[in-house]
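In this supplementary section we document a worked example of the pipeline. Step one takes a protein sequence of length 120 as its only input; no multiple sequence alignment statistics are reported here. Step two produces a three-dimensional model, which step three serialises into structure tokens for compact storage. The input and output of this example are shown verbatim.
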Amino acid sequence: QVQLVESGGGLVQAGGSLRLSCAASGSTFNINNIGWYRQAPGKQRESVALISNSGGWTSYVDSVKGRFTISRDNAKNTVYLQMNSLKFEDTAVYYCYADVMRNLRRYDYWGQGTQVTVSS
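The serialised model returned by step three reads:
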């Protein structure tokens, strides 16, 4: 089992910055990819940014490329999402996500979510 706890959400003006953190605990040595999804009201949850266990691979949704940066500190079992130049459309609940491979099966884990609100 893996537990994920997010922090760092809040209210910010358009053009501002926030940094989200996600602390993982439990069987963290089994984590493969970890990152962030978001869900805005009335919209489907979408992948925002993911990073591999080694940090050598990252993936971003097109709408945040050049503005958001994902990083991880394996010593602290923490993943970060630095969000710059925030836009109104970035308003959403942001969920930390991790996938674990165990016995050839993939298991998905989610945090409880943290609200990010960007005022225009």
